Amino acid sequence: MCRLNPRLAPLALGLAILAGPAVAAAQELPPEIQVDLYMVRADRLVQNQDYGAALEALDVVLALQARHGLGTAPELWFRHAEVALDAGHPQTAVTSVTRYLQLTGRQGEHYTLALVLLDQAQSRVATAAPRSQTPPALAPVPQPGVTGGGQPAETGDGLTLLGMVGVNSATMAFAGPVNVDASQLTGVTLGFGLVFPVGNTPLGVQIGAQWAEKGARTKAVEGEVAAHADVSFQSVDFMALARISPPGAPDLPFYALVGPYVSLELDCRFAFSISEGTERLSASENCASFNNLDTRPVDFGLSAGAGFEMGTGATRVNIGFLYNYGFEDVDRIVGQTARHRVLNIHAGIATAF
Description:
This protein is α+β, with helices and mostly antiparallel strands and 353 residues long. It has 2 domains: 9-128, Tetratricopeptide repeat domain (Serine Threonine Protein Phosphatase 5, Tetratricopeptide repeat, Alpha Horseshoe), CATH 1.25.40; 160-352, Porin. Helix content is 27%, strand content 41%. It has 7 helices and 10 strands. The chain has helices at residues 9-18, 22-25, 31-47, 51-68, 74-86, 90-104, 111-128; strands at residues 160-175, 182-183, 185-197, 203-222, 225-244, 254-276, 279-286, 298-310, 315-326, 337-352. It has an 8-stranded antiparallel β-barrel with strand order 1-3-4-5-6-8-9-10. The radius of gyration is 30 Å and the shape is elongated. The two termini are 49 Å apart.
């Protein structure tokens, strides 16, 4: 009886799964769930030190992902290489860990461990070869973004999409005949951005927009009389920022931001309250209802800040801050000036493409 090569067994198993009859196909699990099932099975087999069976399970995962066009995470190639080496297949380990290094470069989470693994696998390949022969050359590995060997194509143009939510602490710098002592006003921000790399340099370009609440608060107390006034804006801010990574250390997750912004006012409201003892009077109106609150709808200035990203793979957590220093006098009253000062603190998700 003919026996199937052990290295071809998982591929045959994958084809059997994918080429089942139509009736069975209607009842089988979706491909994503099958992938998760075989990943769980591989973890269990590794814990039981059954590395050969674990390698077969991971081979099925790769076959399912290739068949259904599911993306293969770089970490899976590293995992596949580890199990292949433990299962006694060093050449397979060389191919998989090389694929991982090509996808992640020096920024991979397991970069150092991958180099150690590659060295061990190449050493075992050389030891297993006859002494009269030179060590076999590395098997050709498809480059990122090129489909080959039954593996789905993966993009790697370096673009990153950011989605952010946050809070801000806003105030305004007043100057003029009327002395206004402004304090902080807390608001909310929602925004998105797109990051473009600039060649093989630590520089990048981040463009984006955010909806923001900002303004200022004032307070005056004289005897038993206390007066409070808030002027609040809703606006859309557009930014074009230089994104700078630490020179000489591109693997660090930190970056700095600096560049101009332009803000378009959507709404402006003025709220005030006056209290004396138990008596209280309050009101809130659109700024246009007050003759002395005529504002300019366009603001511009300079933004600067910093942030960092946590995680590996295509999706990461992004946390940072950005300070907006307004240059434009948004108060139309002659002789009186008002300029925005806003500290934004945000958190969100960064997704690479």
